[in-house]
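FAQ

Q: What does a record look like?
A: Structure on top, sequence underneath. For example:
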């Protein structure tokens, strides 16, 4: 199979779909890999490194898209890239379709086979291709939030850890999954006062086992959410409904009553965000202020630490990339129910139920779409 790796063009996105190491594995499996020039620059992956791994380096994205049977990316295809997709071509990347009707329409119209990293599952009910980026984003959310709390950034001028005689910042983590756990790890390490809200008692129990008396956990209700958010210096939005738009748990009214100079870092922004006031931002202009509350809503947070996040991502995507190339997409998807869960759009049909529900498409079961 011919595998194509274009350079990412989303604002301040420095990751790349395949590292030279991953390319070498694909070539060893007998596949041809074409890479756009400078695609790996953000991870110090030179064109020569890709050539040494066995890839052919092409001058433009258009050449990559025209040559490849399967496109392997990191972020959702931008409008110019979606125009280059063709019927029967495989797209393997993050998609986050539920809050993005324009992208969904373009992918449906393209006739391509679109497999989303974020909805591939594992035997334990986890999301193995989302998890490493959730780990990165969760940890980064505390770094970003601590910076935003500085007065020069519009924050209240609160040091996350405090100092002897001055209280630390109160950090409220809404959602105790992978993002929430990793945000907690960083916040506890920096000495903050951390409270986690969740509705899964087993999740809260596991967090207490890990972090002990360094944290507080609360069952999330409207009342507890309101009380904790109003008292918070930093709120981390870490809510996820796989494949679906994030629930708007933090209302505009609640934001208006938060402490002036407090910060919300909405890591759920890829799926639309969990605050009514959230809108996607970029690393170029990461923040904005609503009712005195600083909002950090960068939709590709891990792109800023591109080396770490690209290699972490390739560690989990490579086996699936090779399966799709080795077996062809139909056989690979039918052989692996977890990879099949990643199929969001197939030859003009929406094959992920939450996306179809949120955007008003007819839902077609993946196996039906594949003609099985």
């Amino acid at each position: 199979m011919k595998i194509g790796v274009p350079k990412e063009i989303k604002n301040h996105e420095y990751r790349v779909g395949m590292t030279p190491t991953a390319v070498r594995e694909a070539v060893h499996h007998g596949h041809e890999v074409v890479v756009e020039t400078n695609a790996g620059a953000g991870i110090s992956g030179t064109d020569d490194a890709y050539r040494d791994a066995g890839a052919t380096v092409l001058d433009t994205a258009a050449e990559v898209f025209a040559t490849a049977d399967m496109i392997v990316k990191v972020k959702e295809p931008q409008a110019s890239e979606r125009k280059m997709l063709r019927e029967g071509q495989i797209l393997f990347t993050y998609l986050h379709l539920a809050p993005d009707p324009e992208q969904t329409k373009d992918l449906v119209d393209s006739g391509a086979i679109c497999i989303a990293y974020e909805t591939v599952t594992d035997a334990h009910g986890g999301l193995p291709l989302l998890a490493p980026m959730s780990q990165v984003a969760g940890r980064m959310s505390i770094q970003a939030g601590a910076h935003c709390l500085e007065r020069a950034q519009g924050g209240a001028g609160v040091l996350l850890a405090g100092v002897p005689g001055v209280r630390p910042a109160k950090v409220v983590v809404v959602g105790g999954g992978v993002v929430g756990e990793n945000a907690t790890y960083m916040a506890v390490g920096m000495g903050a006062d951390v409270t986690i809200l969740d509705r899964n008692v087993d999740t809260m129990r596991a967090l207490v086992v890990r972090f002990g008396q360094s944290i507080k956990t609360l069952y999330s209700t409207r009342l507890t959410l309101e009380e904790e958010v109003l008292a918070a210096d930093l709120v981390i939005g870490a809510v996820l409904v796989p494949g679906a738009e994030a629930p708007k748990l933090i209302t505009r009214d609640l934001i208006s009553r938060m402490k002036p100079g407090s910060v919300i870092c909405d890591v759920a922004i890829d799926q639309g965000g969990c605050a009514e006031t959230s809108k996607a931002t970029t690393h170029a202009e990461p923040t904005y202020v609503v009712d005195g509350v600083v909002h950090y809503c960068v939709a590709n947070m891990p792109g800023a630490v591109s080396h770490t996040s690209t290699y972490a991502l390739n560690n989990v995507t490579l086996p699936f990339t090779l399966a799709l190339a080795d077996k062809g997409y139909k056989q690979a998807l039918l052989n692996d129910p977890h990879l099949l869960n990643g199929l969001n759009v197939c030859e003009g049909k929406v094959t992920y139920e939450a996306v179809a529900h949120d955007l008003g498409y007819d839902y077609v079961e993946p196996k039906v779409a594949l003609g099985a």
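Q: Is there anything notable about this one?
A: The mean pLDDT is 97.
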